[in-house]
Amino acid sequence: IEWSDLESFHVKPTILPSACQLLDYNGNVIAASGSCQLEVAHRSLKANLPFEIVGSSKASLLGVQACKFLNFVQRVLSLSPADASASQDTDFRMQLNAIINRYHCVFEGMGTLPYTYKILLKPNATPVVHAPRRVPAPLKDHLKQQLQDLQDQGVISKVTEPTDWVSSMVCVKKPSGELRICIDPKDLNRNIMREHYPIPKREELTSEM
């Protein structure tokens, strides 16, 4: 909890020595000047929770367990729970459809980038051509059809002329009967010029907001 939030209370809690070390998501230590116990209420739920007291530049936060206890968040492990009753399942499907209708653009298309991305290679990159891996005879027709479907959807494009880089492909039959197609571009990955984007810290985002 932030000092300024604590000072705004009419009844001040007892300040105790800090009980733990606080770290941000980058592993940096967040200095705490003490700890206290506060009663937190949300609707009909109440809890007496421990808080670490931090400087005025930090935002007040609740922990994961406290948020779960107070019903601020709920962990969803399945989109169609088999043990739910009929009414629960109906409510769940209505909520799910509402989310899909509200954010319909997220569930449409293949999720491609709105521009053409060009991969830049290192100046000393040496092209590597891998030999094609053998495909089991029972999977050939299915593989050919799935590659054609990906080509029709614009996910891949057919190459008919010599190319400098060729990655090996492997296909595995999934329990559902569909094929999982994978490539192994390890040599290409070693020669790509990486783009580095530092992740901003919480303090930086807070100051910009």
Topology:
Blueprint: H1 3-7, E1 22-23, E2 29-30, E3 32-42, E4 45-54, H2 64-69, H3 86-102, H4 137-152, E5 168-173, E6 179-184, H5 186-190, H6 202-208
Antiparallel strand pairs: 1-2, 3-4, 5-6
Verbal overview:
With 209 residues, the chain is of the alpha+beta class. Helix content is 27%, strand content 18%. The strands form 3 sheets. The protein has a two-stranded antiparallel sheet. It has a two-stranded antiparallel sheet with strand order 3-4. Strands 5-6 form a two-stranded antiparallel sheet.
**Which word captures the global form?**
elongated
**What is the radius of gyration computed over CA atoms, rounded to a whole number of angstroms?**
27 Å
Compute the number of helices: 6
Topology pattern, helix = H, strand = E: HEEEEHHHEEHH
Structural class comes to: alpha+beta
Task: Give the proportion of residues in helices.
Answer: 25-40%
Strand content: 15-25%
Cα-to-Cα separation, first versus last residue:
19 Å
Instruction: Note poorly predicted spans.
Output: none
User: What's the β-strand tally?
Assistant: 6
What kind of sheet is the major sheet?
A: 2 strands, antiparallel
What is the mean pLDDT?
Answer: 85
